[in-house]
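Aim 2 progress update. The chain analyzed this quarter is reproduced below.
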Amino acid sequence: MASLVLAIGFTSLLTVFASLVSRRHVHKLEWYPLIWIATLFLYVPGYWWSLWDFRDVEWTFPAYFYLLLMPTFLYIAMRLLSEALEQEDGRSKAETFEHVRIPFFAALILAQLAGAVDGWLLSVEPLFNALRAVQLLLILQYVIGAMTPRIPVQKAVAAINLVLMIIAMFGLRYLPGAFAT
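Predicted structure tokens:
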């Protein structure tokens, strides 16, 4: 179920990206909404990969339901971004992103909070590990992104988040069981 929810959101994101590329002469593209596509492109497979850590969990319905929270919030973020970038009303993609900025960042905050404790709640990783510092920085960035509509701040948040996601995915969690207890 988690994979299905993620796959549907991921598909919508890839569809929008392909549409933006194929109709780039029609759209006024801003780079920072595209950075969010790249960030989510790393985030989703990284999360899918981390699900391998849960292979030996003694599952209960509450644990399974909790595990669905992160994919659900990621799906919401991907759909909000996709719908903002699909708009064909003559506004720039930065302007259409502004329309969904607060709920987009709220969904990312909730996804990150759910993901920060899922391994600990399911007894597959310690509460504190190297990834927690990056997750806290990501949450801080999402809060900053939600709080200000200023374009230079949005650009900085997008760029910093992409760097943090690269560090988190390739530097800290590229192997299954990286944080196993």
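Helices lie at 2-22, 31-50, 61-67, 69-86, 93-121, 130-147, 151-172. The CA atoms of residues 134 and 167 lie 8 Å apart. These observations will guide the mutagenesis experiments scheduled for the next reporting period.
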